[in-house]
Amino acid sequence: MHDRILLSHGEGGKRTRDLIEKVIARYFDNPVLSPFLDAGLLGRIDGEIAFTTDGYVVTPPFFPGGDIGRLAVCGTVNDLAVCGAKTLAISCGLILEEGLPLDTLERALSGMRDAAKETGITIACGDTKVVERGKGDGIFITTAGVGVSVDGWRPAPSEIRPGDRILLTGTMGDHQVAVLVARQNLSIDAPVLSDVAPLSGLLLPLLTRFAGKVRFMRDPTRGGVGVTLNEMAAAANARFVLDEARLPVRDSVRGVCEILGFDPLYLANEGKAVLIVAGDAADAIVAVLRGHPYGREAAIVGEVREGGSGVRMRTIAGGVRAVDYPVGDQLPRIC
Amino acid sequence: MNRGMKYIDEFRDPATAKVLVERIRRDAGDAPVRLMEVCGTHTVAIARGGIRPLLAGAVTMLSGPGCPVCVTPDGYIDAAIALGTERGALLASFGDMLRVPGRTSSLEKEKGAGLEVRVVYSPLDAVTLAAATPDREVVFLGVGFETTAPAIGGAIKTASVRGVENFTVLPSLRTIPEAMGVLASDPDVRIEGFLCPAHVSAVIGTDAYRAVAETRGIPCVVAGFEPLDILMGISMLLRQKKEGIARVENEYSRVATTTGNRKAQALMRDVFVPCDAGWRGIGVIPGSGLGISDAYAAFDAEKKFGIPVVFAREKTACRCGDVLKGKILPADCPLFGNACVPEEPYGPCMVSSEGSCAAYYKYGAI
């Protein structure tokens, strides 16, 4: 093998075969993928199927707490999980730039492998393309995922009613700040780690254990909790009121935000979920979330109130203000 | 940083906030007291904290000219664009500047059409960029107040020491106390107290406001940016008014001192010289700008490329000027929320994340 990706690695000939057999197969070895057919044969699936896709272009591809490979698996697993589905299999589309060090590809593949192993999913099919130098940015990954809904659960924004509680499974903004710090080489005392993590193990058991109590879930990636809640409130045609004092933010993240003028409410997360749950089950759900490694700082951060729609915040100062969509921030690629 | 941020939690306590709000309401008179927060960061913090409606009837908070992007005249944007399109310079800028409208275009629009603009987080990044691209002229858009001026001065000195000859700055630096003096004497604005900036004061020192307090008779309180800082600062202003005194007080004593950061001041004196500056919407204020001194003229983009920043009064329906002077509140402008929204800003106050109009628009609708 060469130590860098060449255009010929994507031309379908012997080098492509070498790349698949000598590199990719070393990381993704499973009975569905290994025959290297034109499609992964998943067999019969019982239950309600969910299907999603996402592209990953984060730069830099490696950052404190994670990498583009782990992100590419977790992002798709989480999209399915917040729709109540357990991921069975995902695809792996690689778009590599000519000249990419092979080591970079291998680090990304090992990130994918480890995340897939953690969540018990199969990387069932894949594709590799190589673009000319200057036409890409090192490595882009796309994944599509197929999952099965737990107990047939579906998001039900129309079921949201006054008295429901808004839950957040942990601190805001860790991923975006971690990437930003890595990208800008900012020197800060306390390192910020990306929260990139698969949430299926955290969220899906709730749907069985608290049947009928979980109304709606979303993962607040790009645009953060602020944008996600606005979209949820619009879908539910409900008024959400957040309690600023209860919103969990790490000290180190708040520090970076103070310096750079960011609002953690609008920063991306890759291992957090927002849940709207029945008021009478909220405390019990938070307790269960806190018992899981990815939910230790889960909290009730607001509630659904009567009257109108949109998102408001009761501030630390004791005032109330609107929480709106942000406009056109100049932010780097973060996912 | 970690330890510092824990410290800040003390300034974010809801119970203390409640006590302060009650005290402010007790101390306020029959008519609302007209106070001005000078700094854009305060404007945003007040809006984000929902503080304005909380104090309605007791205090009217006017938003001042302390958003650097907002007061940058459109002639500056035109000059920046010309440096890129006519002189082929690679522009480096803080992200906030990109959507500010010039006379006919903005950096964002020109960027879409091919103009090279790099967003940087620090002026030193622009020096690094210039060192890495020796065949290009890199122009940093040096916009700001006394807070960013030392960093920009430092970048110029660094470029000088390292011999980075393809680095220049297009300066648009302004000083706050001079603008406050102009507003203090404007009979249309009628300011009864100034909430003075936190970070600016850490650099220039709280004594810098003594002229405004003592000769104009307007109470001044330097306050931090946390919710309790702001409420405490407002309360201190009301106490001064109640007692009939006007002096400079410092709520932000954990950082700001009477004399400020002498090292930063020395750096500014070394690299910059005071000059008259045009403020968008306000006009030319004598001695309120910082130009690059002759010793560092080689790093002055205006001089090096012969593209001057031309200041002219705008002829539009936009009332940013009156907003910046505190004469009207953003919602009183006929364009606010209609022809002028953050997605399609008409005036600079709607562009910047620190702009009064953007803050009112974003956090205001209850």
Biggest sheet architecture of chain A: 7 strands, mixed
Which chain pair shows the most residues in contact? Answer: A-B, 32 and 41 residues
The helix-strand sequence of chain B is HHEHHEHHEHEHEHEHEHHEHEHEEHHH
Cα separation of the termini of chain A: 30 Å
Counting structural domains of chain B, the number is: 3
Main beta sheet of chain B: 6 strands, mixed
Quaternary structure = heterodimer
What is the global morphology of chain B?
globular
In CATH, what is the homologous superfamily of the largest domain in chain B? HypD, alpha/beta domain 2
Low-pLDDT runs of 5+ residues of chain A are: none
SS field, number of helical segments of chain A: 8
* Mean pLDDT score of chain B: 91
Query: How far do the termini of chain B sit from each other?
Result: 34 Å
* CATH homologous superfamily descriptor of the largest domain in chain A: PurM-like C-terminal domain
Morphology of chain A: globular
Can you describe what's shown?
The complex is a heterodimer of chains A (335) and B (366). With 335 residues, chain A is α+β, with helices and mostly antiparallel strands. Chain A folds into two domains: 7-152, PurM-like, N-terminal domain (60s Ribosomal Protein L30, Chain: A, 2-Layer Sandwich), CATH 3.30.1330.10; 157-322, Phosphoribosyl-aminoimidazole Synthetase, Chain A, domain 2 (Alpha-Beta Complex), CATH 3.90.650.10. Chain A has eight helices and 13 strands. Chain A has helices at residues 14-27, 68-81, 102-119, 174-184, 200-209, 224-236, 251-260, 282-290; strands at 49-56, 62-63, 66-67, 85-97, 122-131, 139-149, 165-168, 214-218, 239-243, 274-277, 299-305, 310-314, 320-322. In chain A, the strands form three sheets. Chain A has a seven-stranded mixed beta sheet. A four-stranded mixed beta sheet of chain A has the order 1-6-4-5, with helices on one face. The radius of gyration of chain A is 21 Å and the shape is globular. Chain B is α/β, with parallel strands linked by helices and 366 residues long. Chain B folds into three domains: 2-65 and 184-250, Rossmann fold; 70-176 and 262-305, Rossmann fold (3-Layer(aba) Sandwich), CATH 3.40.50; 320-361, no CATH class. Chain B contains 17 helices and eleven strands. In chain B, strands 4-3-5-6-11-10 form a six-stranded mixed beta sheet, sandwiched between helices. In chain B, α3 (40-48) packs parallel to α17 (356-364) and α8 (123-132) packs parallel to α9 (149-162). The longest helix of chain B is centred in the middle third of the chain and has 17 residues, at 227-243. Chain B starts with a helix and ends with a helix. Chain A binds chain B through residues 184, 186, 188-190, 245, 251-252, 254-255, 258, 260-261, 263, 310, 312-322, 324, 326-330, and chain B through 1-2, 4-6, 8, 12-14, 17-18, 21, 41, 47-54, 95-96, 98-99, 119, 121, 125, 227-228, 230-231, 342-343, 353-354, 362-366.
